[in-house]
Design a protein that fits this description.
Number of helices: 4
CATH class: Mainly Beta
Helix content: 10-25%
Structural class: alpha+beta
Order of helices and strands: HEEEHEEHHEE
Length: about 140
């Protein structure tokens, strides 16, 4: 793995607040939706939230394989890995953003959960450079 391209990819991730997430639906087909990333830092782990009982949460409970695509006008990073539904209060507190009040009410809402995505493989196009590697 080229450390320089990884550093560039991490910089793209840090500035990416929205991403596309693909999960496997109950019929074995991919299902893609847009999510707001919570304080993204690097390509290794990403976090977003959803409701307990929402399609993403139910599907990830049955099949935790997922993909996330982060992009800017000129860069594209596709991550393949596994997702985990976190419902513990410590995670809910850590990844809470003020604007979540409009969706969940507060941090203790029973339907608020955090999705932790752990990357296994990276494919990217950053600064006109292509790379693919496993983590």
């Amino acid at each position: 793995m080229n450390e320089k391209i990884l550093e560039k990819a991490n910089n793209v991730i840090k500035n990416c607040t929205t991403a596309s997430v693909g999960v496997i639906d109950e019929n074995g087909f991919p299902s893609v939706s847009t999510v707001s990333l919570v304080r993204p830092d690097n390509v290794t782990e990403l976090y977003f939230t959803t409701n307990i009982g929402a399609n993403k949460e139910k599907r990830l409970q049955k099949n935790n394989k997922a993909s996330i695509c982060c992009y800017t006008k000129s860069d594209n990073i596709t991550l393949v890995g596994e997702a985990e539904v976190l419902t513990d209060q410590a995670s809910k507190d850590k990844y809470w953003l003020d604007w979540f009040k409009d969706i969940y009410g507060d941090k203790t809402a029973p339907d608020y959960c955090v999705i932790k995505f752990t990357t296994k493989r990276v494919s990217l196009w950053v600064d006109n450079e292509i790379a693919e590697f496993s983590l």
